[in-house]
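4.2 Preliminary Data

To establish feasibility before requesting continued support, the project team ran the inverse folding procedure on a target of 386 residues. The structure was first converted into the token representation described in Section 3, and no sequence information of any kind was made available to the design step. The complete token record follows.
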């Protein structure tokens, strides 16, 4: 494996960067893409062996994972999951693919990355400024009061708002409380100043989606389609769902505020192939061919560590930086990967790995996320041009 110093100066692939047109995807053999074919085959075989134990019935999975929570009823659509599948890109070319990568599937919290990108569009257009309080442009009760009026877009994007309230029938205090905690105990957790603590809370995520819809004055799936998914040549098979309880009236029209994940059902239902296109856009730092869809400054902000959670940038950019990783280790989250690598992660597990040192996008669906570093170790070990 490369040292961090060697990774920083690793040679770039010899292939010229490629942008796949809509409905097409040029392929390259492992050898053409700079991989040892035998070692890459071993790496892919290992990835396939790391199948998730997530039940095929996603509704049952949600109940098993979150059924201990009060207000855990499922209010968004679900869908039985596909088998393990994946896709590997280098320099934009399709190098390897396995399983059913064309089937739209729930992607859980990877939805948050689509959501943060939509907020990025609003920021790039000057509709909002991320370090300003949301209340400056969103005039709803959720952002009223001395404390909530100080919550910024940056706080919501970084999951540091500690917003307290109820949205679409889901109280924020009921999201991922300590197991065994009573309602009174969960409600009694002291409030923290925005920006001083990090909490993975889907109610606060859904609040960001609602606020963004208030800014655009139209459903976020339309914004995502027009500004990102159609321009990158995604299929028309993806869907972004909200809750049965999240319909609101905006400018006299009924609109559904979408969810940022599948905690209570809903979120993005998207194919691995479409997810790979989105990952390639992020690898290219917001540029698709001759067109810039997200600003360089927005991508850089998304990749900037959160003070109180150094391995987390904007929703849902997980960073490979020393900090508070899932294991509690101060080492890199994925020691096999370059420090600049990022990953979008969703339950199940759904993973999008982005490696700008090696010009790689790897999409994995329904794998054991605990084996991610082992998969990357084998994948990057198969490169010839290290």
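Position-by-position output of the design step:
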């Amino acid at each position: 494996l490369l040292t961090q110093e060697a990774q920083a100066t690793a040679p770039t692939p010899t292939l010229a960067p490629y942008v796949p047109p809509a409905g097409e995807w040029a392929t390259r053999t492992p050898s053409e893409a700079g991989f040892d074919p035998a070692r890459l085959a071993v790496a892919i075989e290992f990835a396939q062996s790391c199948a998730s134990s997530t039940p095929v019935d996603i509704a049952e999975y949600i109940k098993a994972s979150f059924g201990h929570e009060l207000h855990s009823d499922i209010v968004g659509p679900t869908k039985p999951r596909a088998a393990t599948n994946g896709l590997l890109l280098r320099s934009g070319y399709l190098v390897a693919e396995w399983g059913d990568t064309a089937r739209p599937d729930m992607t859980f919290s990877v939805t948050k990355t689509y959501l943060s990108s939509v907020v990025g569009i609003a920021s790039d257009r000057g509709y909002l400024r991320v370090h300003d309080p949301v209340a400056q442009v969103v005039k709803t009760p959720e952002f009223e009061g001395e404390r909530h009026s100080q919550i910024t877009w940056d706080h919501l994007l970084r999951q540091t708002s500690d917003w307290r309230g109820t949205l679409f029938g889901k109280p924020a205090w009921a999201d991922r409380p300590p197991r065994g905690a009573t309602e009174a105990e969960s409600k009694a957790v002291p409030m923290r100043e925005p920006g001083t603590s990090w909490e993975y809370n889907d109610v606060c995520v859904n609040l960001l989606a609602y606020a963004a819809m208030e800014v655009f004055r139209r459903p976020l799936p339309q914004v995502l389609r027009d500004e990102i998914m159609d321009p990158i040549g995604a299929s028309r098979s993806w869907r972004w769902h909200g809750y049965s309880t999240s319909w609101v009236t905006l400018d006299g029209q009924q609109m559904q505020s979408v969810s940022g994940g599948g905690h209570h059902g809903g979120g993005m239902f998207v194919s691995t192939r479409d997810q790979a296109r989105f990952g390639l856009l992020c690898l290219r730092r917001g540029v698709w061919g001759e067109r810039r869809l997200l600003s360089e400054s927005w991508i850089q902000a998304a990749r900037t560590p959160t003070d109180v959670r150094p391995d987390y940038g904007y929703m849902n950019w997980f960073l490979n930086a020393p900090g508070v990783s899932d294991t509690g280790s101060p080492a890199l989250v994925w020691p096999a990967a370059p420090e600049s690598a990022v990953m979008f992660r969703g339950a199940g597990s759904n993973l999008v790995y982005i490696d700008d040192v090696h010009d790689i996008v790897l999409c994995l669906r329904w794998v054991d996320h605990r084996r991610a570093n082992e998969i990357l170790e084998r994948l990057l070990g198969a490169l010839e041009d290290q």
